[in-house]
């Protein structure tokens, strides 16, 4: 039987999902090419010099709620053997000098009475301008100028940089939950949220309540393995290999040979080449253009943020025994998110591990140091003078987090269109395609494209 030759480029969750999806059928001959020395992409463990393992940021796995996808992602049968299961993400947030351990959304009821009243007044009377193409105009119309100045603008700056041009930002992106606030008790919120214009700006007071109310079936998972989230991508890799997928790590593509707008051969460094009938490309799409010698000129250069991860182990549990991870929306701190592994995996009695994340530009990244990260942890009250660092590691992932500008959108659309016309047998997917970003979204999107093309 003739098997269709498929080359998958990139061994992150997108590429591994695609490999497993196709490998379930006998009709494909699949090769997965990964440029780094191991698969997993962002969903990998980081091993410190002392051998302690940390994840690369906050990465809980989540079910998509689509049975055939979840079966590929997590296998069949009971999950309890290998996974901790949660019905909701237990996240908290820090804002304006105060903790809220129930949700990642800011609860403006914690503001001084006068401020709160002003915010609520504006929040309820402002009319969201859904036609504007400008983030500043949108957010002011959505939540009012006071909240926009006090919370939304500084938080977006913290994520995307002081230098971010707000007139370039896409208006209606979720920005990690930065489009809603908690403003009332849940009963009042529920009444107001039945009206769409309020639903879009109000949140319930806790993630738990939200999950219960909305009857969300999606559940979140975290591996019991010491490898952390890497267990997931390792399992997917092993399953793919067992089903016959050939995996080439530390492999560089040097050229995409296209005939009549179809890639027929993928050439690799070292002289090897692979014939192919289809390519699933989860690496940056601009690279595909270059490797296929397709001319593309754009004046626009995407603005990319560097992820700075500070991993720590302490001699004693962290002073938050509740949250899986916390967001820090307070503008006087550099950190935006902290993962508290022991609250996810329940191993706190041995000490504790956490990862603090800061987004910056490349120059600022060089100025960041362990001492600063530890100071923030102390100021946040997550550790105190009794905490002794028993392990630390710093991981810098340059140029990984795109600033969601309208120009990026346009450039991606332009490149996407050009690629569709020039390389017709290539599926462009994954976070680099900029058509989806969150884990479940990139997976659902690649699944849909594979269904359309192959089945
Ligand atoms: C800082 C940060 C925070 C995030 N937070 C969240 C979150 O809270 N929730 C959430 O759902 N999602 C989050 N995401 C997004 C989520 O992690 C991704 O959507 C998902 O992991 C993307 O998987 P991927 O396979 O598309 O990309 P990646 O994991 O980046 O994998 C791409 C793979 O392609 C390989 N590759 C690159 N170029 C080549 C090449 N030329 N040849 C061969 N291989 C190549 C890379 O080495 C890598 O292994 C976050 C992402 C970042 C960067």
Keywords:
455 residues, alpha/beta, FAD/NAD(P)-binding domain, Polyamine Oxidase, Chain A, domain 2, 7-stranded mixed beta sheet, 5-stranded parallel beta sheet, 20 strands, 33% helix, 23% strand, binds flavin-adenine dinucleotide
Approximate shape:
globular
- Helix share bin: 25-40%
Distance between the termini: 17 Å
Discrete helix count: 15
Question: What structural category arises from helix and sheet content?
Answer: alpha/beta
Short recap of the structure:
The chain has helices at 13-23, 67-74, 113-125, 135-143, 145-160, 186-193, 196-199, 207-214, 230-242, 285-291, 341-345, 362-367, 370-379, 406-422, 439-454; strands at 4-9, 28-33, 45-47, 53-55, 61-62, 83-86, 91-95, 98-100, 220-223, 246-248, 253-259, 262-268, 273-275, 278-281, 304-314, 325-328, 337-340, 352-360, 389-402, 426-428. The protein has 455 residues and is of the alpha/beta class.
């Amino acid at each position: 039987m003739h098997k269709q030759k498929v080359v998958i480029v990139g061994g992150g969750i997108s590429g591994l999902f695609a490999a497993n999806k196709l490998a379930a059928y006998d009709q494909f001959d699949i090769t997965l090419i990964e440029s780094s020395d191991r698969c997993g992409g962002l969903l990998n463990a980081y091993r410190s010099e002392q051998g302690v393992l940390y994840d690369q940021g906050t990465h809980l796995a989540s079910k998509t709620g689509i049975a055939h996808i979840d079966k590929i992602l997590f296998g069949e049968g009971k999950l309890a053997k290998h996974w901790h299961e949660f019905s909701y993400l237990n996240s908290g947030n820090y804002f304006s000098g105060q903790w809220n351990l129930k949700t990642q959304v800011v609860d403006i009821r914690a503001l001084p009475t006068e401020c709160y009243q002003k915010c609520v007044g504006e929040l309820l009377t402002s009319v969201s301008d859904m036609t504007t193409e400008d983030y500043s105009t949108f957010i002011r119309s959505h939540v009012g100028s006071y909240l926009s100045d006090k919370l939304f603008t500084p938080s977006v700056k913290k994520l995307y940089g002081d230098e971010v041009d707000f007139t370039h930002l896409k208006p209606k992106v979720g920005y990690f939950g930065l489009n809603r606030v908690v403003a009332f008790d849940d009963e009042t919120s529920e009444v107001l949220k039945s009206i769409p214009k309020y639903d879009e700006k109000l949140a319930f007071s806790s993630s738990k309540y939200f999950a219960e109310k909305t009857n969300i079936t999606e559940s979140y998972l975290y591996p019991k393995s010491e490898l952390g989230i890497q267990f997931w991508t390792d399992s997917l890799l092993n399953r793919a290999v067992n089903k016959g997928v050939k995996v080439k790590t530390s492999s560089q593509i040097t050229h995409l040979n296209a005939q009549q707008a179809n890639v027929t051969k993928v050439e690799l460094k070292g002289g090897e080449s692979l014939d192919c009938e289809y390519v699933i490309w989860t690496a940056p799409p601009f690279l595909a253009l270059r490797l296929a010698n397709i001319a593309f000129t754009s004046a626009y250069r995407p603005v990319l943020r560097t992820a700075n991860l500070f991993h720590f182990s302490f001699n004693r549990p962290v002073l938050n025994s509740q949250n899986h991870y916390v967001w820090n929306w307070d503008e006087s701190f550099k950190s935006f998110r902290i993962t508290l592994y022991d609250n996810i995996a329940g191993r706190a009695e041995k000490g504790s591990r956490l990862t603090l994340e800061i987004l910056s530009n490349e120059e600022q990244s060089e100025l960041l140091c362990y001492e600063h990260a530890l100071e923030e942890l102390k100021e946040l009250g997550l550790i105190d003078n009794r905490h002794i660092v028993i392990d630390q590691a710093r991981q810098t992932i340059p140029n990984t987090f795109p600033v969601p500008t309208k120009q990026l959108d346009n450039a991606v659309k332009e490149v996407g269109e050009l690629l569709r016309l020039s390389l017709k047998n290539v599926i462009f997917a994954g976070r680099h395609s900029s058509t989806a970003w969150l884990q479940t979204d990139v997976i659902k999107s690649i699944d849909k494209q594979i269904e359309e093309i192959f089945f």
